[in-house]
């Protein structure tokens, strides 16, 4: 893979991307190679003149006696000339595989006479029909990079690396030529930990701004964990070079993990690590053994986070020798399942000698429990302890979804949003910060759910008794009873009425709302100055939802002037009718396209500046029929109608560089831009962060840990001068003084969240 040659030499990598579109699609590659023909080779990066001096010594240093007998596998070979160059350099035993029948046929025709010993096979590199331990070298030139598409996450990459490790002989080498994107390195380094020696080389490039790195992993017979070494000075990678600095950061981070592990710290192991015996013989029970690990890979449809626990008292009579306990996403953050102490309580109640606790997440939302059990079954069997009773079954237990009671309040279908559901739920256990609120009765919450993102709660609010309505209701009831008595009605036993409930707008049930407001710490000095001067702080929220965030800001920050922008008028009706949303002079709603709304503000401001510079005597303040003046704070909180690209929130248009530039132009120097980012794909999150770093002078992030690394709130600042992380505690105190929250626990949760704010630029 690489650059076009001949008359097309000037074509850029962008042309390749537009031609191919999806690196993981067999049909796209077939079309691509058909269009190019068998004589037009394609070297994505690292051409032979630059690669030769680094690669040949590694191959010649192999344990094989001669280069001609070295067995080399080239997965995802494409129509690269790499194998031809190796053949001409004396390496004869080379097997090339690719899932494109078109390119394999072309390469066979091209080489059958001049290089007859080269082998070409049509094969999917994620499930290769090749014998175990049959190759001395697996030489990957861009194959792993191509498999790591954001839409598929790490699944294909994991499958492929499992195959590469399987077919390598002891002492063999996996040589990976890569552009070293962060999500690729994260997978690559973590999959070659125990029993592998790793080294990284930098390949000199000509006529390209892209660096190519060569990562070499040598298979050992031991299970030692080595630090990764580099064949070049890490300090030579310039800090302004994103590729170089990314490699340096990845190496430093991975080596720190390896040092910590060798010093006794806990580590998230893989299933493969455990099968190597890293944590002892798993066929034997060891009282009190607890191992965090990941499941999934070859032959599995899903990946899972899991904990293996051997009962602390192995003398107890057990009902099961091994059991599986499934924890749904909605309950994974609870103390009982997230803490070590709580997990041991689950083990005790399960009556299993070994319990494998498996945590489900959003990626499993479309699967039935039968699908999950069928997927887990072969892997769990490998993890079960030795048992004399060969027919003993492994039971599957599951925590409920944590909801004791669920009532559907309203359903409506919108042409823009699809099916919208409003439901009232009572949880089996109350949130920790509300446990003392109503000890004698169950707390109820009202939730907004979109069918298109079934596993995601769009909005959630606490329901409380409405004192005003209740008092009025009692007066009406007393009046009616008096009238009945005067009319001689003898009926005395009236059925007690249910308490009338309303949404509480001074409690934040959604953790990301808490995170958004905690970021106001970054501009708290300006907010304090505005409040002192009686200046209104204009805040624009793109995405109304249930209206909970605008209502909270309206109530707890009385010097805020809030404008919510919502594309779907159905959502405005839902927020009014079921979530108590109201608007006034300080809280307005626009039914409009959020992208256009911000661009109209930018254009209006630009026109105002031109008028002002032209000497107009009129008011130079920018106005717009929708947007008005520039906001001080802009919050993006909209979901994506299409999350197939790995982005659940916001819609992709809101993180395009052109829109981000419009935002920066619309904000003043003291302005704050907030994005609620939801994605399971690390590469997608890295892409969004990279774009925001490019546009904004400073970037802060807040990771919501309880959301399993899916939800992160990003804060972009326009000013060159900004507070440092060390100043955040002092700035948080200012924000705390500005918040007029009736519930102290709500204010405290916001201030606690400020401790998670991290400076990313």
From TrEMBL:
Residues 474-500 are annotated as: Disordered. One of its GO terms (molecular function) is S-adenosylmethionine-dependent methyltransferase activity. Residues 75-176 form the Methyltransferase type domain. The chain crosses the membrane at residues 507-527, 539-560. InterPro entries: Lys/N-term_MeTrsfase_sf, Methyltransf_11. Keywords: Membrane, Methyltransferase, Multifunctional enzyme, Transferase, Transmembrane, Transmembrane helix. GO terms for biological process: methylation. PANTHER family: EEF1A LYSINE AND N-TERMINAL METHYLTRANSFERASE, SAM-DEPENDENT METHYLTRANSFERASE SUPERFAMILY PROTEIN. Belongs to the methyltransferase superfamily. This is S-adenosyl-L-methionine-dependent methyltransferase. It comes from Arabidopsis thaliana x Arabidopsis arenosa.
């Amino acid at each position: 893979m690489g650059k076009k040659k001949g008359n097309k030499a000037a074509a850029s990598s962008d042309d390749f991307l537009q031609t191919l579109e999806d690196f993981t699609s067999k049909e796209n590659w077939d079309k691509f190679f058909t269009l190019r023909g068998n004589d037009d080779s394609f070297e994505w990066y690292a051409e032979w003149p630059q690669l030769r001096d680094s690669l040949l010594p590694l191959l010649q240093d192999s344990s094989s006696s001669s280069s001609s007998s070295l067995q080399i596998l080239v997965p995802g070979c494409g129509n690269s000339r790499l194998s031809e160059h190796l053949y001409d350099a004396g390496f004869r035993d080379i097997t090339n595989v690719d899932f494109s029948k078109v390119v394999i046929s072309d390469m066979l025709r091209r080489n059958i006479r001049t290089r007859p010993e080269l082998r070409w096979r049509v094969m999917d590199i994620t499930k290769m029909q090749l014998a175990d331990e049959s190759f001395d070298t697996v030489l990957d030139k861009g194959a792993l990079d191509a498999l790591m598409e954001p839409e598929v996450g790490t699944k294909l990459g994991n499958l492929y690396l499992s195959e590469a490790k399987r077919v390598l002989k002891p002492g063999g080498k996996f040589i990976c030529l890569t552009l070293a994107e962060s999500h690729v390195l994260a997978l690559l380094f973590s999959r070659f930990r125990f029993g592998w020696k790793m080294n990284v080389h930098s390949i000199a490039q000509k006529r390209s701004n892209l660096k190519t790195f060569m990562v070499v992993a040598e298979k050992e017979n031991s299970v030692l964990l080595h630090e990764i070494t580099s064949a070049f000075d890490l300090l030579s990678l310039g800090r302004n070079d994103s590729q170089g600095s990314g490699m340096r950061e990845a190496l430093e981070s991975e080596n720190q993990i390896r040092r910590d592990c060798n010093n006794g710290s806990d580590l998230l192991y893989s299933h493969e690590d455990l099968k190597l015996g890293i944590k002892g013989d798993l066929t034997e029970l060891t009282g009190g053994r607890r191992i965090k690990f990941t499941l999934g890979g070859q032959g599995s449809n899903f990946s899972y986070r899991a904990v293996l626990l051997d009962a602390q008292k192995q003398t107890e009579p057990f009902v099961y020798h091994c059991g599986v306990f499934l924890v749904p996403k909605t309950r994974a953050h609870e103390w009982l399942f997230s803490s070590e102490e709580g997990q041991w309580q689950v083990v005790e109640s399960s009556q299993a000698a070994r319990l494998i606790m498996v945590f489900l997440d959003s990626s499993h939302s479309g699967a039935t429990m039968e699908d999950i059990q069928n997927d887990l079954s072969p892997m769990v069997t490998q993890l079960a302890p030795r048992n004399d009773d060969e027919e003993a079954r492994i039971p599957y237990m599951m925590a409920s979804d944590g909801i004791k009671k669920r009532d559907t309040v309203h359903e409506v279908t919108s042409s823009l949003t699809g099916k919208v559901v409003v439901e009232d739920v009572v949880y089996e256990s109350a949130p920790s910060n509300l446990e003392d609120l109503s000890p004698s009765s169950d707390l109820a919450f009202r939730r907004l759910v979109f069918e298109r993102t079934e596993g995601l709660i769009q909005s959630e609010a606490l329901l409380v008794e409405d004192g005003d309505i209740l008092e009025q209701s009692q007066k009406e009831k007393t009046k009616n009873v008096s009238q009945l008595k005067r009319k001689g009605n003898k009926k005395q036993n009236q059925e007690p009425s249910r308490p009338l409930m309303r949404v509480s707008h001074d409690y934040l049930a959604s953790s990301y709302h808490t995170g958004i407001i905690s970021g106001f710490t970054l501009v708290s000095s300006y907010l304090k100055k505005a409040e002192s001067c009686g200046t209104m702080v204009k805040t624009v929220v793109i995405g109304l939802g249930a209206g909970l965030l605008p209502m909270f800001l309206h109530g707890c920050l009385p010097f805020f002037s809030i404008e919510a922008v919502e594309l779907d008028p159905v959502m405005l009706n839902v927020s009014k009718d079921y979530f108590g949303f109201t608007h006034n002079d300080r809280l307005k709603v626009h039914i409009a396209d959020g992208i256009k709304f911000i661009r109209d503000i930018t254009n209006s401001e630009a026109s105002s500046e031109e008028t002002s510079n032209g000497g107009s005597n009129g008011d130079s303040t920018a106005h717009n029929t929708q947007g008005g003046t520039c906001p001080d704070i802009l919050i993006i909180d909209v979901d994506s109608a299409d999350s197939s690209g790995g982005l659940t929130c916001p819609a992709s248009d809101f993180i395009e560089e052109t829109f981000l530039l419009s935002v920066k132009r619309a904000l003043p120097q003291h302005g704050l831009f907030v994005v609620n980012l939801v994605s399971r794909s690390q590469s997608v999150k890295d892409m969004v962060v990279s774009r925001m770093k490019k546009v904004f002078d400073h970037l802060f992030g807040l990771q919501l840990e309880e959301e399993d690394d899916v939800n992160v709130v990003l804060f972009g600042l326009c000013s060159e001068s900004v507070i440092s992380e060390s100043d955040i505690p002092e700035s948080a105190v200012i924000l705390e003084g500005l918040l007029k929250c009736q519930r102290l626990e709500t204010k405290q949760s916001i201030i606690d969240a400020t401790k998670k704010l991290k400076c990313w630029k």
